[in-house]
Amino acid sequence: MAYNRLGEGDGGMTGKVIMVMVDAVGFAAAVACFGTLEGLVEGRKARRWRMRTVLPSLSAPVYETLHTGTEPHVHGIRSNDRVPLSKGPHVFGVARAAGKTTGAVAECFYSMLYNASPWDPVRDMEVDDPSLDIQHGRFYTDHGHTKFNLHLPAEADIMARTTLMIRRHAPDYILVHTFGPDAVGHVHGGESTEYRHEIWAVDNALADAVPVWREAGYRVLFTSDHGMTADGRHGGTTDVERMVPFYDIGHPDGGVADGVASQLAVAPTILKLMGLKAPPEMKEPALV
Description:
The chain has a 9-stranded mixed beta sheet with strand order 4-5-3-6-1-7-8-2-9, sandwiched between helices. By secondary structure, the protein is α/β, with parallel strands linked by helices. The protein has a single domain, classed as Alkaline Phosphatase, subunit A. The longest helix is centred in the C-terminal third of the chain and has 23 residues, at 193-215. The protein has 12 helices and 9 strands. The protein has helices at 27-33, 35-42, 59-68, 72-75, 91-97, 109-114, 121-124, 155-169, 180-188, 193-215, 239-242, 266-273; strands spanning 17-22, 46-52, 102-107, 126-128, 136-140, 173-178, 219-224, 243-249, 255-262.
């Protein structure tokens, strides 16, 4: 059965998946600020988990965990200071090997992990190449996001680029990554007005984008890599750094899930929704 309206259809098992990964949104901040996503949970059109991150709770190690289903001490990406090509297996590679198409609208760490490292913006910023693991890529850098010089891609622009990619290429798996809350949180802190406004901006952009993506036949997942402390940092072991949300828009059993899910479950969940078998390295059961 095809999707006719947001939340309707056959439970989302179409084989096409979008995962929105928003940097540095902890669980409490998500529930407080994501009115669109929480409305879908309340209306039982989405299911929400409380999810614990791996350690260290840093971006690059978690990006790799989300796509390999393994911990940093296994996959080898232990900090943001060195981002080599992934050793895999990972979601993009498994999907491409199975004849699926992949895409990403994301910060350049994802290009470095799955396409080419080191980063060369002229070569890597825009790619449409079936030989790459991320075949259709639209990547941006975080240059200028530090201190008070915040030159952030607009959240609505990132969502619009994703919709444009769907219309032009219709990849089977698309990773959507927005960096705004992390950049703002490092400057103003995780309890600031500025940080919460940036999270709201993501939710506001999703309000327009998610129905379009669902109409196009995508199951939409949403999570974060880590949270943000009041003093503008992450990487440690506190709940505010480690507890993040995981939403599944289109899950046939909407509402709030019990317990705490593992970040190791994300990669096998993506593959299962695509109708693909997870490799043995991904040991955590899928969330579907």
